């Protein structure tokens, strides 16, 4: 039986104490290879001491051989990524067989026994391909749902500004056309229908719920504004009576209540009576003078 050579300063595990891959009292670390061999665990210092050699492996895919130059300490996963270009297969859809055994992507080539000019068989993994295809479709749907929710959110923001404008007018006692309120409610309901048609999971589903609550809140606000806008009251108080034409005539814009009108009538009773001036009558002196002039003309 050949004795395995090591370069460690520590001793190999004794009495089966291989837990954690450490030796009983030495400094070296040991690891168990997939083939059941006990080898020294690699460290960064060991990798820096010597550059790992580059090997050429022959990979068969169908009836075609591909030769790949790769580091001897690379993993099978790295080899799959290098084969994606020449084979056209995604690295997640590949299955590598070495010595009629499938190798995991995390296993190193040299640990598995791959050497220069070793032969590896590449086959397509239909199960992995189906999983990746389903994952891609799921991600595409999630991306589409997130985009749709984002567009709806922007539209709801725009409609929210109109809701605030109507609320500001009606809350101050003003009136708006009922058609404007109804149209705004209809636009918000259309956004709610769009949200109901979106199927989302995870974060997109949470965003969808947030937008649904926003739209429902604005619709409820508009319903309350519609009722308030249709009421014949202003700010919850009765509408003050409009002054009659007589009140306006007496007040000249100043008397606006019946008490003030009554006071105005009393004040009118104490005012001096204004009479029209009589026509000016000729005085007696002027009449006699005119008759004298007439007799004088007759004597001539």
UniProtKB/TrEMBL annotation:
The keyword rRNA processing does not apply. Residues 1-34, 229-300 are annotated as: Disordered. One of its GO terms (biological process) is protein stabilization. One of its GO terms (molecular function) is protein-folding chaperone binding. Residues 148-226 form the BAG domain. Residues 18-27 have a biased composition (Gly residues). SMART domains: BAG (SM00264). Residues 53-123 form the Ubiquitin-like domain. PROSITE patterns: BAG (PS51035), UBIQUITIN_2 (PS50053). Residues 245-265 have a biased composition (Polar residues). Keywords: Chaperone. This is BCL-2-associated athanogene 1. It comes from Actinidia rufa.
